Amino acid sequence: MNKHDSERVCGMLEAQGSLCVGTYEEADIVVFMTCCVREAADVRLLGQAASMKNLPLRAGTPLSKRIVAIGGCIGQRDGEKLIADLPHIDIVFGTHNLSSLPRLLAAALDEGGHHTEVLDHAEGFSTDLPLARASGWAAWLPITVGCDNRCSYCIVPTVRGRERSRPIEEVVREAQGYKDAGVREVTLLGQNVNSYGRDLYGSPRFAEVLERVDATGITRLRFATSHPKDLTGEVIGSFARLGSLMPALHLPIQSGSDRILAAMNRNYTQAHYLGLIERLRDACPGIALSTDIIVGFPGEGASDFDETCKVVEEVGFSQAFTFIYSRREGTPAAALPDDTPAEVVQERFDRLVGIVQEQAWRQNQKELGAVVEVLAEGSSKRDPRLLSGKSPKNQTVHAPLPSGMSGEDIAGSLVKVRVDEAKTWYLAGDVVGPV
Ligand code: 5AD
Ligand code: SF4
């Protein structure tokens, strides 16, 4: 969602005549789009924003001072306080008023001084704003913003507000526009896409959105994120029915322990989660599953953690994002006693990472010898002679670039790759033809 918001910010500033540049040094205007889901993101922002203070201005700039803006979740949460802590910041805006940025920027340029605007409620969808997409072949398409869940550890509902769905016709129109413009892959976005439509007239269901977007003729369709309590049989069935829906699902489990899941206010059990996995594999054999896991939630004991490890072993995730619990002020969990020593949490975390890596490696081994369809994204960062792209299961795939082609030439094309190497984080092989 932050990447998408950033594309909106670029779109608005470009519409006003600004130019996107590659580094802070070259930039006259720096906009930080921020996340506050874990403390590490807070710390990183403070460091990076502070470092702007002594960064020399670009030679030839007409400005006497670099304009620095902080937007997104930290802007929403901290507002004016950011300027008290970082007086060289010029602008603060929140998650509900991306569209204010051009006005705040004009004021900062004309008048100097500080300009803060944070709203308590949304003033419409940021999706109505200009957009500068980072890639020509893939597009993020937000279908909901905000979150009505109250996971006890999570700050998102506070900074992103109540869940709001975009009308289905608008979503389909945008998807059709992407398809017609040559975009290959659309990723539908929302904090919990499965509860889409509950706030709309006629309560359209998420499965209907999937069906309608599939019908646009888009090549690849993905979505994120799903809450296990809201994943319906109809959506599970979509994996069998819809040609464009890629065989990969991100389904955050957070913990394998029923006791901890209850304390997290997740409203499902381990058995429910495993039941969903079984139904998903029935509907779509070979589906790649990924997840999020929090280690060290307050009160997590050794046996709770063992349950998490057990589930991870049982499911066989292709990828798992693992996080050490981060106490977020203002969330219900922040009030819970938390007495697990940090070393114990770290040891659990390291053990889990080991299991997750082993699982990812094992899932990738299954592709050896297979021919997979790869959506090329360009050349590999590590070796410019290789193309890098994504398989339907969202695995990173590398292969030598066809002769005479650069990464730029091939970006956005679909190619077939025969896999002859499978590592933990990627597959590699040779291009055997176009799709
Ligand atoms: N501490 C650690 N991880 C968190 N997440 C959300 N809030 C916290 C927190 N307070 C993780 C969850 C979520 C992902 C986006 O971030 O796993 O799914
Ligand atoms: Fe946070 Fe839970 Fe909403 Fe996800 S579903 S954004 S974890 S409150």
What does this entry show, briefly?
With 435 residues, the chain is an alpha/beta fold. The protein has helices spanning 2-15, 39-51, 73-78, 81-85, 101-111, 156-160, 168-180, 206-214, 233-241, 258-263, 270-283, 302-315, 342-365, 407-410; strands at residues 29-34, 67-72, 91-93, 115-117, 138-142, 144-145, 164-165, 185-189, 220-224, 248-250, 288-295, 319-324, 371-379, 386-390, 396-400, 414-422, 427-434.
Q: Could you characterize what this model shows?
A:
- The protein is globular, with a radius of gyration of 23 Å.
- The longest helix has 24 residues, at 342-365.
- The chain has helices at residues 2-15, 39-51, 73-78, 81-85, 101-111, 156-160, 168-180, 206-214, 233-241, 258-263, 270-283, 302-315, 342-365, 407-410; strands at 29-34, 67-72, 91-93, 115-117, 138-142, 144-145, 164-165, 185-189, 220-224, 248-250, 288-295, 319-324, 371-379, 386-390, 396-400, 414-422, 427-434.
- It contains 14 helices and 17 strands.
- Helix content is 34%, strand content 21%.
- The chain has 435 residues and is an alpha/beta fold.
- The chain binds 5'-deoxyadenosine and iron/sulfur cluster.
- The site of 5'-deoxyadenosine has 12 residues, from strand 11.
Average predicted local confidence, pLDDT: 95
Ranges where pLDDT stays below 50 over 5 or more residues in a row are none
User: So what's the overall shape?
Assistant: globular
Report how far apart the termini are. Answer: 30 Å
